[in-house]
Amino acid sequence: MKRIAGRLRIGTALAVLALAVGCRGDKGSSESGEPLMVMAAASLNRVMPELINRFEEKTGQQVTLVTGATGSLAAQLTNGAPADLFFSADEETVERLENEGLIRRGTVTPYAEGRLVLIWRDGAPPPASLVALSTGPYEVVAIANPEVAPYGVAALQALENSSVGESVEGVTVRANSVNDAYQFVRTGNADAGIVALSAIDPATEAHLMIDPSLYEPIRQAAGIVESSKNPSAARFLKFVTGEEGREILARYGFSAPGSR
Asked: Nearest to residue 222, comparing CAs of 118, 108, 146?
């Protein structure tokens, strides 16, 4: 019960924090006079602030950031939430929104490919592979909810293709997003978790790279929201997908689109 209560507190707190991320300081006047509103998948929690800071320094355009699970953000856009840019953790969601008239046609742009890693709580024995999740002392295994998070879909594929899907089904906890799954492990509310490489600091956090052949490529794409009137939307998308943006993304574990 303690673990369940902890998970609920974490999820609520992270949701509040995600919505509370706002303008990132006075860095000069913007092109449009209004902040650029960016919605970004939770797999970008660590990298997007650096991308935004660099863009603000170069342009003076203020940026407001909201992060969350891809499916949850897409639902917000469908319900009329204001935004200028949407960075998804997959291609399918952005393409669907384009077909529905919510993403400006012709602006859907792949920007990165993600990777999965296996992490474990402090004090837990390091698993040698995903198979260890079915035999070791891992009572709770956290993944992102596959109904709203592409990284959750990939995590299920990796488990199933490792032939441990059914054996760990009863101990798998589905977090609201890949970042929530990471937090479950870091706070000890889960013994292990399958998360995005971009969610961790590989230099300081123990992890096991998951064989990419076990899951379909996590191809991530972005698009300009149809209702956006901010001319900086296209400029920011071009920055992220340009040489400087790609270099920043690579430092956080993302590969270039089509690299796999």
From this structure: 108
- Please, are residues 197 and 167 in contact by the beta-carbon 8 Å criterion? no
CATH homologous superfamily of 2-113+219-251 equals Periplasmic binding protein-like II (3.40.190.10)
Across the chain, how many H-helices and E-strands are there? 9, 10
Q: Give the tens place of pLDDT for each residue, 7-56.
A: 333 343 334 334 433 333 333 344 557 899 999 999 999 999 999 999 99
Cα 30 from Cα 232, distance rounded (Å): 8
Strands 116-120 and 208-209: antiparallel
The pTM for the full model equals 0.86
Expressed in percent and rounded to 5, the helix, strand and coil fractions of the chain are 40, 20, 40
Q: Which CATH superfamily is domain 115-214 in?
A: Periplasmic binding protein-like II (3.40.190.10)
Question: Hey, where are the domains in the chain?
Answer: 2-113+219-251, 115-214
Contact 229, 32 (CB under 8 A): yes
How do residues 116-138 score in pLDDT, each as one tens digit?
Answer: 999 999 999 999 999 999 887 89
